[in-house]
Design goal:
By secondary structure, the protein is an alpha+beta fold. The chain is built from 32 helices and 32 strands. A hairpin with a 5-residue loop joins strand 2 and strand 3.
């Protein structure tokens, strides 16, 4: 196509008109076979599931139309034909960083994780295939699966299984726009006619427990189709493929991770959801989950791990024999006695059946899920209970909380969005909204629970935000993992204190929104139920407890990061983002047999993506050899220069400021017009002093002028004008060695004749942070100064005493300084469980400290300051000034160090990508004392030492005798999180922007 367009005979008029492309797309979609590709590997199969129906009765139901594809066909297509596979990392490695005398291991990508390295080493240690001397490499497969509702109205659901390649960088995989995932199967719902089948065989309709068992059987049957004999053969012996570099290799696929929410984890691991031992990775008992973070909890995780061993498989075989051959009841005493102590279900595990003999253990691939377990899990539960506590204090407290959340300023393009108008109502909030609430709650809930409990709740919210930042880091080191261990222990202590000592002091009931939701569920149940269901419209009491699996999962994050890399590599957010593509495809179907139509569209899209990548590769190659048919014209070149003259963005530079200003204003005019404004009192003196310092290469002093006033006569400013801008782009290197950009907005809007306030949205983006210096002008580690940018200027100036007669462009930020809260001093950070508090400096008629000028290249980043709402507003700091908020300034502001992961690492120090000399690691705040894992508060030594389990049960476990020493946008609606509930049954109650790596950052 590129050659055609470049050909001299090419005519646009002979091409297909744009209005006919939709018809071409439809014809292409309906053409069979597709002209874009040969075999995509999709199959439509049937699966037989066995149904236990009592003594001497056994039914077989065969669900049809199971859509799946060959995993091996997908692997071949990607490795051999997708140009993006040239970026696959086939040879794993360990990463280290050296800062000073300290060398630390770096954890990030899956292909540099312990599990991947171990698989690669084990593979190299095996004898080669007979007669084969090819290189042997591991292909890490990552799976995501989760059911989703396809439309806001209607009951159509889709339960896709996505496959990604862990050899590809997570920075590519995690971007939905890259479309690096592959649909490999759609898990169907249980056929509606199964009730008729059971009634025909047994004479009575099936109970809920039996239907749940059938759903589990169907799930495992689908996995048996996905992981077929061909995959098991490739798993053991590998497959010979020609990689994108033209080299033939023997590729061994490995199932590295499986990301899913808790109901599907229970399905995959064949355990009962919320049973006595609810964890799919260990045998912790539900009544002991509250010990989260304690020493005994850690021992349980390491010594009582679930294993796919002979004991487990024999137990399931025995149970199934009694169910299917001897006619025992599914909910009978025999089955309960056999399986309930371990929360197992009588289902044969497909992954175990296919891959166990090859050394694979399906328990090991079930990774943590920060999105469902934390953001819309534990944090959502804690936030809900805090709101219930506020309701018990009176409606005014709830309204005050809502008002505070509404007043939280936004940050970045989408880092902190505008909070909902009514947080207490909790309607239609996505996971990203809960994350924003978590990152800002430490300031919002300050002093809202009375003098007895406010301080403790503030400490809890600080620790929760700290844990969330550490768990979500995209690049970890040994020291940050040690910090995560310490914060996990403290989080457990804080949550136990909250549940045992704080929450019981409040009489908490359902919120009005929760009571209304319960009433709606009751009404919906009555419509479908033949039996009357009694309910009360009164708000029910709600208590806070800790015995939940999602809380227990928080203790596995350190081990998971070591084994599989950081959490962003396998967060369910990646799968949820891909759901959006399925929903878009669904809207283009006729809603009948929509799965097949989605598959067809997906096939075309996959092939077009590969074609697009090939064209890009060819264009790069072709452009290096092609000679232009004619040079660009003068007019075209002038037009190009005109377009680029406004703003040339180069993120390798410290900042970007447009060449042409938004407005130009006379210095004398604004000085005369606003002479009574406090912010203009010493404007000229400070401005001239700053410009002279810049021209003479002298460091500008923020606390006063460096030069006497008569030196200003030696300064020449072209036209006596300052040129103003609305936006400054600040480029920086993140802690995980990426390039990112902050947008700084001017607080004031300038025109040639006047100055006025910007809109509220722009005002929220006008705060900056700079590295702090002590009295001797030495940098203070991990300390910052804060300021509000009143104006963004550039001037053209020269010094008549200088050697050059040319005017030099000087970029300037006019700022209003914040100062530290004198009552707080240095009592903030991890040790005090408080964020730093700053406030605008008070206006001094004789001094100039409230205002000043800053070199844009000295700015570290934009800052997020949240008002200290308990202090209220004041107009005493600055009288009648444009630099002040219209309603007055808050007395103090909380520095939000948790606003994003890079900001957190700047306050903590030690970020790999932070090479500034002020960014040192400060490990002291995270020291726990004598022991890393401390006993749970309030637990006796006997209780803490050993969980209660029978000796016979303990003997059945495979104990791990040695523990290794090496120990983070898309939407997720709450409705999607509950889809699996229908499928799994109810046995129990239920910007960072990218960029290229800086390879030589630390090379000498």
């Amino acid at each position: 196509m590129y050659k055609v367009r470049e050909h001299e005979d090419y005519k646009e008029s002979e091409c297909i008109p744009s209005e006919q492309w939709n018809k071409v797309a439809r014809d292409l979609e309906n053409f069979d076979p597709s002209p874009l590709t040969a075999n995509e590997g999709w199959k439509t199969s049937s699966a037989k599931i066995s149904i236990p129906l009592g003594p001497k009765k056994q039914g077989n139901q065969i669900p049809k139309n199971l859509h799946h594809r060959s995993l091996i066909d997908v692997i071949k297509k990607v490795v051999e034909h997708d140009p993006r596979a040239k970026n696959f990392h086939l040879f794993p490695y360990e990463e280290y960083v050296k800062k000073g005398d300290q060398v630390e291991r770096v954890y990030g990508e899956l292909y540099s994780s312990n599990s991947f390295l171990e698989e690669f080493r084990n593979l190299q240690a095996q004898p080669p295939e007979p007669g084969c001397d090819l290189e042997r490499v591991v292909l890490g497969l990552q799976f995501w699966s989760d059911a989703t509702v396809l439309a806001n109205f209607g009951s159509h659901k889709l339960w896709p299984v996505y496959m990604y390649f862990g050899n590809e960088s997570k920075y590519i995989r995690s971007k939905a726009t890259e479309e690096t995932g592959w649909d490999v199967g759609y898990i169907p719902q249980l056929p509606e006619e199964i009730q008729d089948f059971m009634k025909h065989v047994s004479g009575k309709p099936a109970k809920q427990a039996l239907l749940t068992h059938c759903r589990r059987e169907l799930y495992q049957a689908v996995l048996m189709l996905l992981f077929d004999d061909q995959f098991a053969e490739a798993y053991e012996h590998g497959i010979v493929l020609t990689c994108q570099d033209g080299i033939k290799r023997r590729v061994f696929p490995r199932v590295s991770t499986w990301s899913a929410d808790y109901p599907e984890k229970a399905l995959l691991s064949t355990i009962r959801e919320n049973g006595r031992c609810p964890c799919p990775r260990c045998f912790v008992q539900k009544e002991n989950i509250h010990k989260f973070g304690s020493a005994s909890d850690q021992r349980t995780r390491t010594t009582r791990k679930r294993r796919d061993n002979d004991w487990r498989r024999n137990l399931i075989r025995k149970c199934r024999h009694h169910l299917y051959n001897l006619g025992h009841a599914l909910t009978g005493a025999f089955v309960k006695k056999l399986l309930d102590p371990f929360s197992l279900t009588p289902n044969e595990n497909a992954l175990s059946a296919r891959l166990h003999h090859l050394g694979f253990d399906f328990h090991d691939i079930l990774v943590v899920d920060l999105l469902h377990e934390v953001e819309i899990g534990e944090w959502k539960g804690l936030l809900s209970h805090l709101i219930r506590m506020l309701y018990s204090c009176g409606d005014n407290a709830v309204e005050e909380m809502n008002a505070r959340f509404r007043a939280v300023p936004t940050f970045g393009t989408d880092t902190i969005r505008q909070c909902p108008k009514n947080v207490a109502e909790g309607k239609h909030r996505a996971a990203r909204d809960f994350e924003d609430l978590l990152q800002t709650s430490h300031a919002v809930f300050e002093d809202m629970f009375g003098p007895e409990h406010s301080e403790s709740i503030s400490e809890l919210l600080y620790v929760a935000a700290e844990w969330h930042c550490l768990a979500k880091l995209r690049m970890h080191t040994d020291s940050t993992l040690q910090d995560l261990v310490a914060v996990t222990v403290e989080l457990g202590n804080q949550l136990r204190k909250f549940a045992e000592k704080i929450a019981p002091d409040f009489v908490t009931k359902e919120t009005p929104a929760e009571a209304a939701a319960r009433a709606r569920r009751h009404a919906a149940t009555q419509k479908t139920s033949t039996e009357p269901i009694s309910t009360s419209s009164a708000r029910k009491a709600k208590m806070y407890h800790l015995n939940r699996y999602k809380l227990h999962a928080l203790g596995d994050y350190v081990d998971m990061i070591c084994e599989f890399g950081t959490t962003d590599s396998y967060n369910t957010q990646i799968g949820e983002a891909r759901h959006r593509l399925k929903k878009q495809a669904y809207r283009k179907t006729n809603k009948r047999d929509f799965e097949l139509q989605i598959i067809k569209r997906g096939n075309i899209q996959e092939s077009l993506l590969i074609i697009e990548q090939r064209v890009k590769e060819w264009k790069k190659k072709f452009s290096t050899h092609r000679t232009p048919s004619s040079p660009p014209t003068v007019d075209a070149e002038a037009k190009s220069n005109e377009q680029n003259s406004e703003l040339e963005i180069d993120d390798s530079k410290r900042y970007t400021l447009a060449r042409n200003p938004d407005a130009s204003i006379s210095i004398g005019t604004i000085q005369e017009k606003y002479s009574e404004d406090p912010c203009m009192r010493h404007f000229n003196v400070m401005l001239f002093d700053y410009i002279l310092c810049n021209l003479r290469g002298v460091r500008y002093q923020v606390d006063g002028p460096r030069y006497p006033s008569h030196e200003a006569t030696k300064l020449r400013i072209r036209g006596d004008k300052i040129h103003t801008h609305n936006t400054l782009r600040l480029h920086y290197t993140t802690y995980d060695v990426r390039r990112a950009t902050d947008f700084i907005k001017s607080y004031l809007k300038f025109s040639s004749t006047k100055i006025q306030h910007q809109t509220d949205g722009n005002q929220n983006r006008s705060t900056i942070m700079l590295s702090a210096y002590d009295k001797d002008d030495n940098p203070k580690p991990n300390s910052f100064w804060y300021a509000r940018v009143l104006g963004i200027f550039h001037v053209y100036a020269r010094d008549i005493d200088g050697s050059s007669e040319d005017f030099k462009r000087i970029d300037i930020l006019w700022v209003r300084w914040f100062g530290q809260d004198p009552d707080q001093q240095d009592r903030f950070g991890w040790k005090y469980k408080r964020t730093e508090r700053v406030g605008f400096q008070e206006d001094d008629l004789e001094g100039m400290s409230p205002f000043g000028f800053v070199d844009p290249s000295d700015v570290v980043r934009a800052a997020h300051l949240i008002p200290a709402f308990a202090q209220r507003r004041t107009t005493e700091l600055l009288q009648d000034s444009l630099a002040q908020d219209k309603e007055g300034d808050f007395a103090f502001y909380c520095v939000n160090r948790f606003v994003d992961r890079d900001m957190y690492m700047r306050h903590r120090g030690g970020g790999v990508g932070h090479t500034d000399q002020t960014q040192f690691t400060d490990s002291e705040p995270y020291e726990l004392g004598e022991s890393t894992m401390v006993p749970a508060e309030g637990l006796s030594d006997e209780q803490d030492h050993e969980d209660e389990m029978d000796d016979g049960v303990l003997a059945a476990f495979d104990r791990r005798t040695e523990v290794e020493e090496d120990v983070e946008e898309e939407d997720v609606d709450e409705e999607d999180d509950d889809v699996n509930k229908d499928i799994n049954g109810d046995d129990e109650e239920l910007s960072e922007s990218g960029g290229e790596f800086i390879d030589d950052l630390y090379e000498d």
